[in-house]
Amino acid sequence: MKLSSKGRYGLRAIVDLALHSQNEPVSIKSISKRQDISERYLEQIIGKLKKAGIVESIRGASGGYHLARPATDISVGDILRCLEGDLSVVNCPEVNETKCESSHLCVTKYVWQKVNIGIQDTINHIYLSELVEQGQQLLDNQQ
Amino acid sequence: MKLSSKGRYGLRAIVDLALHSQNEPVSIKSISKRQDISERYLEQIIGKLKKAGIVESIRGASGGYHLARPATDISVGDILRCLEGDLSVVNCPEVNETKCESSHLCVTKYVWQKVNIGIQDTINHIYLSELVEQGQQLLDNQQ
DNA sequence: TTTATTCCTACTAAAACACTAGGAATTGTC
DNA sequence: GACAATTCCTAGTGTTTTAGTAGGAATAAA
Lengths: 143, 143
Fold this sequence. Notes:
- 2 copies of one chain form a homodimer.
- Chain A contains 8 helices and 2 strands; from the N terminus they run αααββααααα.
- Chain A is mainly alpha-helical.
- In chain A, helix 2 packs across helix 3 (39-51).
- Chains A and B meet through helix 1, helix 6, helix 7 and helix 8 of A and helix 1, helix 6, helix 7 and helix 8 of B.
């Protein structure tokens, strides 16, 4: 029931990215340093975010990444789904089996559905922009 | 982000148990047959439920298990926590590290907190009794 | 005494996780 | 044009977790 490090690192990384990409693209190296995440591992994570159309890249020297759309249009759900696959707690493979209905009279699936919906609801309603604002405040307070 | 089979099987098993323990205790063998779960594996699962004080056992021939308290007093949260350990999606080990506050200015923890609370909220407010009722209805309709 | 059960602990194959590694392609800079 | 800094792509790998299996002791009903 734990999120993988891809999800944890990825969310931290993209908040960092959003926070530091005013004009220039942000390099993996710089995120890696600030967030203390392996460069090589970050590559993979950001690669997924790119494939999902959440960030865009600029190749070559002084290249890097920036958000593909406004932070107000990127939900935490968008980010986590692309890094973790679907975020359902139970896939209910049992539901698809003939056994399920006839033998164990699956009432548990209602539980899984509720949990799944609850999670989606939560993460779909938190936007990257909110996290960036909070991050900015923390940065401001620090000085 | 998936629940383990212990959680999935365990919830099915205890619903089955509650549904079939009118007077006599319910044996692992019978649950195993009805639910198509390995006897040996079920032993371990029910063992945990026992250790957590959710079910009680009667040893020896014609022994088995029954609920330790009314199904109205057992939440899905009680069951899943004992089978899965804590159900938080992220433990926030980062929060405890010095690094967290100074370097990545952890705003992500607010996300994890919301998700964790949402999950707890959901599973703490579904009671075994509700599932048993639903299961009973399914059984009734079947005949 | 036999049989049906719970109980306890150790083992194990397979899968998932959390990276590491190597190197190709691209592009700005001197 | 050479070099350096970057993204990009794919494969490998040690560790941990998962999903069971296995063996046998303890208990109690018949």
